[in-house]
Task: inverse folding
């Protein structure tokens, strides 16, 4: 092993590991560490949050604030789980996103796939080969025995919270044996969950975490050669990676490989994401969709881990203004104009959400307004020609324009336009994303 080889392998392994480790950081906060403010519920139990996300929610970056979440971390080692969804109103969107430990979106349940009539679904790990009992509407098999189910329930307005709580109370989960009334199998052995590293992509400690997580999934045949290269550095399930025992030159080369990964992503973000040659439609999806493109998977985890697949939602980012300049509300005020007839084409709903450029979290503001969405259209001021113009700035605008104000931080920011159940006009190019225009210098 030469330092050059170690550097290349470390770069490749970091691209591969970062989403896995970021997922583990969320798992640990939400399902293991009961003292964490982001804790939701233990394994195989649903934790409901009957409110939308605010700046106080920090478990994962770039969250949406349209749909109260429910969270289910699944341990599928002993037996499958049976998940039940209640029937809901025809005009309300809900979904369950099923995610494996690599952050692939394995499948969806809910409005798009099964309608709003509810259903009973069996979720199985990779080794299960049992009989499916009567009354199961669909079986979803996941390639990892630790997995995540992320529920989204559309909230119409503040007065709608009680209805969302009632829907969430109708989400239920239990073991297959309990559902079928059969003898349960032996319990899986307890897991000693290690504390995750503080910074996933900046330290060789991330490979300890990856080795641990990969123990819950058999290697995919397409990754045999990749895993063999990783093993040369002690990276892989069952291996004891020890950065303290590394030759100093090899350790330095591996740290350089981590820096190479960050530089590779920065170049990708500048040349592909910022120019929209690559969009969220490319970054999130099944293993078959991603085709082992680990840079895409890394980018998805960096921009907003657990993003939806393109069929479920499209994410259109604003990182620069119409002149290509980075967004900074300390220096400029901005407007986003959507012409009459040019609103985002959604079969469910759309929203545009503000994020702090440094923390990648929602932005504190006096209105506690973190987004503008399609349910708010009746409260917005309409332009003379019937269009809508949003005021995106840190200062409070004139009273007449305040209904259209999306508050920004006093510094760098970005916005995400989410379109749930997007129409074909987006993919075809018939509908074009409106530009964000800098209209004036910011005032103190």
Result:
């Amino acid at each position: 092993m030469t330092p050059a080889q170690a550097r290349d392998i470390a770069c490749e392994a970091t691209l591969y590991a970062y989403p896995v480790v970021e997922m583990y950081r969320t798992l640990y906060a939400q399902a293991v560490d009961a003292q964490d403010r982001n804790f939701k519920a233990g394994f195989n139990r649903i934790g409901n949050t009957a409110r939308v996300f605010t700046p106080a929610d920090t478990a994962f970056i770039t969250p949406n604030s349209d749909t109260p979440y429910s969270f289910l971390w699944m341990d599928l080692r002993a037996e499958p789980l049976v998940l039940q969804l209640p029937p809901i109103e025809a005009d309300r969107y809900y979904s369950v996103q099923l995610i494996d430990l690599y952050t692939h979106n394995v499948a969806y349940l809910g409005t798009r796939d099964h309608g709003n009539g509810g259903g009973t679904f069996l979720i199985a790990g990779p080794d299960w080969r049992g009989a499916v009992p009567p009354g199961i509407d669909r079986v979803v098999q996941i390639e990892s025995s630790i997995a995540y189910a992320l529920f989204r329930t559309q909230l119409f307005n503040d007065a709608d919270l009680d209805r969302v709580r009632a829907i969430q109370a109708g989400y239920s989960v239990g073991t297959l044996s309990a559902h079928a009334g059969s003898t349960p199998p032996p319990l899986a052995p307890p897991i000693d969950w290690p504390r995750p590293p503080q910074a996933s992509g900046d330290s060789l400690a991330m490979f300890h975490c990856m080795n641990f997580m990969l123990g819950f999934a058999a290697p995919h045949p397409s990754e045999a050669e990749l895993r063999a290269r990783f093993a040369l550095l002690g990276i892989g399930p069952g291996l004891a990676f020890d950065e303290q025992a590394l030759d100093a030159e090899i350790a330095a080369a591996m740290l350089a490989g981590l820096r190479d990964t960050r530089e590779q992503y920065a170049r990708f973000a500048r040349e592909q994401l910022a120019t929209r040659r690559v969009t969220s439609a490319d970054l999130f999806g099944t293993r078959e969709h991603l085709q082992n493109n680990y840079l895409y998977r890394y980018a998805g985890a960096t921009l907003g881990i657990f993003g939806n697949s393109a069929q479920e939602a499209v994410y259109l980012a604003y990182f620069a203004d119409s002149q290509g300049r980075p967004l900074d509300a300390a220096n400029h005020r901005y407007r986003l104009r959507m012409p009459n007839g040019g609103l985002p084409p959604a079969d469910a709903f759309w929203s545009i959400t503000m994020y702090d450029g440094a923390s990648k979290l929602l932005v504190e503001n006096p209105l506690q307004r973190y987004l503008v969405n399609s349910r708010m259209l009746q409260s917005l001021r309409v332009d003379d020609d019937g269009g809508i113009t949003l005021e995106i700035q840190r200062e409070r605008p004139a009273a007449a324009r305040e209904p259209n104000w999306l508050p920004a931080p006093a510094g760098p920011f970005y916005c995400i336009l989410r379109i749930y159940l997007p129409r074909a006009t987006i993919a075809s190019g018939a509908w074009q994303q409106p530009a964000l225009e800098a209209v004036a210098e910011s005032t103190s």
